[in-house]
């Protein structure tokens, strides 16, 4: 069975669909210099250019390159769902929070905030880890009881990484039950052997004129 972990890596994984989707999450940015010809990105003004001090929400992948540019085109602010107010809610009781509503890729997108010079980034990463630790037990308990209990409400509150973990727990339970019932040890006739027997039977029938 594959291993699952909370991925807080900051790099891009171009072969991971979840990573690609997480990189599309928008974060608040402030333009430090004027940018010509991109005024259409700001729907609140008819100006053809983006002026200094303009606030826009940009995808993570775009904000990263603009922030790292030698000119420091944009500064990045902490997204709302990772600010102190939400961190306090998660610290109080992470197991009851609808994490999927805060962001379907809450952990993955949150980890990518380490790309930026946010003053509270250490608190954000600490919250991500503690939130996962606080929810892990309930997720695994639920995955072991999902066959006998309707856990639809619980599953809808999980972020995508947690849903993968939940599914892994279910597969582990089914594999264990299969082993316990000796279903994994049952021998069956190979398809190749069955086909050979069938051809042999057809040949004998033809020889006998059937």
TrEMBL record:
Residues 15-66 form the DNA replication complex GINS protein PSF3 N-terminal domain. GO terms for cellular component: GINS complex. Residues 84-180 form the GINS subunit domain. Keywords: DNA replication, Nucleus. It comes from the Eukaryota. GO terms for biological process: mitotic DNA replication initiation. Component of the GINS complex. Belongs to the GINS3/PSF3 family. The GINS complex plays an essential role in the initiation of DNA replication. PANTHER family: DNA REPLICATION COMPLEX GINS PROTEIN PSF3 (PTHR22768). This is DNA replication complex GINS protein PSF3. It comes from Elysia chlorotica (Eastern emerald elysia). The lineage of its organism: Eukaryota, Metazoa, Spiralia, Lophotrochozoa, Mollusca.
